[in-house]
Amino acid sequence: MARPYSSINDDPDYGEEEYDGTSFHQDLNVMGYGDDNVEGGDQAGTWASGSGMPSDTKPRILLMGLRRSGKSSIQKVVFHKMSPNETLLLESTSKIEKNDISNSSFVQFQIWDSPGQIDYFDPAFDSEMIFGGCGALVFVIDAQDDYSEALNKLHMTVTNAHKVNPNIKFEVFIHKVDGLSDDHKIECQRDIQQQAMDELTVSDANVPAIHLSFYLTSIYDHSIFEAFSKVIQKLIPQLPTLENLLDIMISNSRIEKAFLVDVVSKIYVATDSSPVDMQTYELCSDMIDVVIDVSCIYGLKEESSGINAEYGEKEAKKDPNNSPRTN
Length: 327
Fold this sequence. Notes:
The protein has 327 residues and is an alpha/beta fold. It is built from eight helices and eight strands; from the N terminus they run E-H-E-E-H-E-H-E-H-E-H-H-E-E-H-H. The strands form two sheets. A six-stranded mixed sheet has the order 2-3-1-4-5-6, with helices on both faces.
C-alpha cells in the first residue's frame, strides 16, 4: 500500500530548529517572498574556506512542484534528520521557507521550499530575484498521482525560469516511488521523461535546448540522498579536482570505491570515476550511522564538533530514557 505524503507545517515558527548553527527561517516580504538577510556572523567566506559563504553568494536550490508532492518532506528528511514517518504530520507549505545549509566547506547552499499553489511568473512577483541567483531548480512530481497537471507546471516553470537564468540546472524528482513495483517505476519514469522532453521540443523549437535530469526518489530509502547528491555535485566548482584526487587514492590503495560524504546529511559530494553502485552507497551510509551512534553511546568529548551532538539529540528524541551519556 502506498504511503501517504504531506508537506510542511505552516506555523511561522516551524522549521527554525537549530540545524547547523546558521539555519534560519524568515518571512518573505511580498506575497511570500523577499530579501534574505542573515543576522550576525562573519559574512566572508568561499567554497574553499570553513568560515562559510555570505548568504547572497551561496548557490540556491529551489524546491518546486504541486501541493502535496512531498517537497518539504524531502527537505526535512535529508537536511533535518526527520524520520520519514514523522513527515506524515507535516502540513502544506503556505509561503516560501528558506533554509541555510552550511555543514562543511563544500556543502554550503540555500534551499527555498516554495508553495505549490503560487505562480511565481505573475507580474506581482520579482522573477529575477527568485530565479536570478538560482543554481538548481528541483521539481518534484508525485508518481502515485495523476501527473498531467504537474507536467504542465513543469513545462511552464522550466521555460520561464530558463529565460530569466539560462544557467539553472533543472532536476526532476519522480517522487513517492516506494509504493510502485519495479516495472511500474521504469514505465512511470519513461512516460514522464518522454512527455516532458516532447513538450519542450514541440513548443520551444527556437529556444536553446533545455536539459532535464530525472531521478526516481523516495524518502523511505537512500534514493533521495543519492538524487540530492547528484544535484549538489553540480553546484561544486571543485568537483573535477575532488574526483581526480579520489581516483589517485583508489589507484594507490586497495580501496574498491571511494565517497567523500557530508556526515550530517549523508550526501556524497564527490566519488571516484567508477560507476556508483546503490548498494555500496547504502552500506557506506549505514556505516556512518553506526559510527555516529556508537560514539553517542560511549561518550562525547567537549571539543567534538556538533555532528555527534546532533545525532545524540536525534537518538534522545527516539528514546528519551536512553539519551547519550557523556564521560
